[in-house]
């Protein structure tokens, strides 16, 4: 999801329907992160018995930090945040192979017969691919929501960086995990070219906003001093 037009109402609020769409994009990506993390935490690559509830039970502080960060970055209302509960990603449920196929976009392939989707090696590969995809989409959804809400890049990038740190830990629990800086680099090459190319229909203020967030995220995630990275806006 990218900004293709001004999304704000006259009083500066993001219209409810569009705020809900942006929140759903954030929560869907987080749902993928959580389901993949639950499979990885089990350590067997066997889906039978994997439980999101068991995975999240000792990680409630992490989940709370995530939701508080999402609320602040997107300036989402209570009603919009309630969508997370309605979607059910963060309640106890099993993780079927079809979910991993969805999160990994079928990149690992669709085997015949379909029961082979549950083979441990394919489960492992879908988790690896899905984590990269969903963390990158999470970052895109967060930046878009922040821009629509008018959250300034200096403030928003710090909050987004913290969300990414928690999300990376959930996606690869107990492992040499993907870092927020790596997610940022993947996001930059996967999403920004289409938004920032001259023929893009994104408004100038949106292009400037994405460039500012890119530069500020680079500074925050690389630990550089303020002003070390500056967007050309």
Describe this structure in words.
The chain is mainly alpha-helical and 233 residues long. The chain is built from 10 helices and no strands. Helix 7 packs across helix 9 (180-196). It is globular, with a radius of gyration of 18 Å.
Return the average pLDDT rounded to an integer.
90
| Class by SSE composition | mainly alpha
Could you describe the largest sheet, including whether it forms a barrel? none
Shape call: globular
Approximate helicity band: 55-70%
List keywords for this structure.
mainly alpha; 0% strand; globular
Outline of this structure?
This protein is an all-alpha fold and 233 residues long. The protein has helices spanning 16-42, 52-56, 60-74, 78-81, 83-87, 97-103, 120-149, 153-171, 180-196, 204-222.
Topology summary:
Blueprint: H1 16-42, H2 52-56, H3 60-74, H4 78-81, H5 83-87, H6 97-103, H7 120-149, H8 153-171, H9 180-196, H10 204-222
Helix pairs in contact: 1-7, 1-8, 3-8, 6-7, 7-8, 7-9, 8-10, 9-10
